[in-house]
Each structure stands twice: as C-alpha cells, then as structure tokens.
Amino acid sequence: MKVPSVVIGQYIPGDSLLHRLDPRTKILLALAMVVALFTVESPWSYLMLAVLVAAAVLSSRVPVKMVLRGLRPIAFILILTFVLHLFMDPGEELFTIWRLRATHEGLRIGLLTVVRLTLLIMATSLVTLTTSPIVFTDGLERLLNPLRIVGVPAHELAMMMTIALRFIPTLLEETDKIMKAQMARGADFESGGLVNRAKSMIPILVPLFVSAFRRADELAVAMEARCYRGGQGRTRLRQLRFGPADAVVAAATIVYLAAAVVVR
C-alpha cells in the first residue's frame, strides 16, 4: 500500500475491528483518551496509555508509517515545547549552554509533554483514518443532536467539520503543486530573512485562495444538483447501531483508562 504524503483527513478502507466500530464509539473513546492524557502525571500512566495507542494502531491494520507521518506537521512544535521546558523550568541543574540552564525537572516535564502530544495526535488521527467521511458525519451529528435544544445546528456543524477535514489534504497537495510550479519559474522560498520569506508566500496564497473558492463553488453546485437541503427530513442508507463489539471495546477501554489515571 502506498502511503499518502498527507495524513490529515485521510481515510484508509479496511475490515479491522476498529473499522467496524460505530463512529460514535470511536469519537467518545478518543475524547476519553484526551481527558486521560491531560489527567495523568505518572510516567507509568503514560506508558500504559502508549501501550493502548500502540495496540489500537496495530489492530486497525493502518500502516504504522502513515500514523507516524501524521506527526510531521507538529514536529517543530514538539521540539520547541521540549526545549522551552528543558531550559525554562526551575529545578536542579543538569547542564549549562551559554546562559541557558537545563534542569532535571525541565527534562522530565518536557519529555512527558512531548509524549502527551504525540499520543494525542496518534489517538485522534486513528478516528479519521478508520472512519469514512459520511459515517463520521452521521456519528458526529448523532452526538450533537441533544444540543439542538439550545439552538445548535447539529447537522450543519457536523457537515462543516467533515468537509473541512476532507479538504485539508486537497488544499495541502494544491499548495505543494503551486510551490513547485513557482519554483520552476525561478521563485525562491528558502533564502532571505523572515520578512522576505513571508513576502515570497504571496504568489502562493493568491492562487491557493482562488482554487479554494473554485472548489467550494463546485461543491455547492454538486450538492444542489443532488437536491441537498440540509438535515431536515434526510434519510440514510445505513443506520448507525451500537453492537456487542462496541460495548466490549468501550467497557474495556474505559476500565483501562481509569486504571492508568489511578496509577502512581
């Protein structure tokens, strides 16, 4: 299987246990994982959560390289976060570089923060990698339905989020094509200072916005041609139903996450 260059918003068809789960189960378990990641503090807890994410990746049968490639867009943020914690957090001195003083506490907190963000991205990306956009929209809409009481447009909000996720890979690929076309014409995006690099991005942003608006117009015309009128009275070919597998996986995951939270 060829690994796509862009991971965000991609869906990998399959027949694994994770693919067969109800989308609402996967979304709720991903939220529970996020809560657990920002609750635990013990390194043993992070190890338990890392084992859970690794087991989920293996059971999904999604290429590990693709899941790891999803970390590439935040690599700079991970490095910056680690460096800031290493040199800014007070504590016992580890080593000194010029006037910067690294500490043991900064090293520990920096590593735990990087692990937390890495597991967060991997856990949430598995939801979109194993859920088709249509099913994801239906599941998200069902979860948002109770908010209609306070006037939240559940269907429109779910549709908007799904379209945004779907077009992220398309826009990134379009940006790459525009940059290569501009470089073939002699454009330089790497030399010069920060201001010059920012100015050099203008020839990319203009055609990118034009392309995005054109795609949005084409999508709107296609939806109107298919008589799309919003969620009112809309029927679905496949109804979402919680199955025995959803109950077992949800119960086992919640118990495991609770155990990871209480571990010291």
Structure description:
There is one protein chain. This protein is mainly alpha-helical and 264 residues long. It has two domains: 1-131 and 238-264, no CATH class; 155-233, no CATH class. The protein is 67% helix and 3% strand. The protein is built from eleven helices and two strands. The chain has a two-stranded antiparallel sheet. The model has no long low-confidence stretch (mean pLDDT 82).
Average of the residue pLDDT scores: 82
Q: In which order are the strands of the major sheet placed?
A: 1-2
- Radius of gyration, in Å, reads 22 Å
Tell me the number of structural domains.
Answer: 2
Secondary-structure element series: HHHHHEEHHHHHH
Distance between the termini: 41 Å
Lay out the secondary structure.
Blueprint: H1 17-20, H2 23-37, H3 43-60, H4 64-69, H5 75-88, E1 93-97, E2 100-103, H6 104-129, H7 133-144, H8 154-184, H9 194-200, H10 202-225, H11 244-262
Antiparallel strand pairs: 1-2
Helix pairs in contact: 2-6, 2-11, 3-6, 3-11, 5-6, 7-8, 8-10
Short recap of the structure:
This protein is mainly α and 264 residues long.
Write a concise keyword list for the protein shown above.
mainly alpha, two-stranded antiparallel sheet
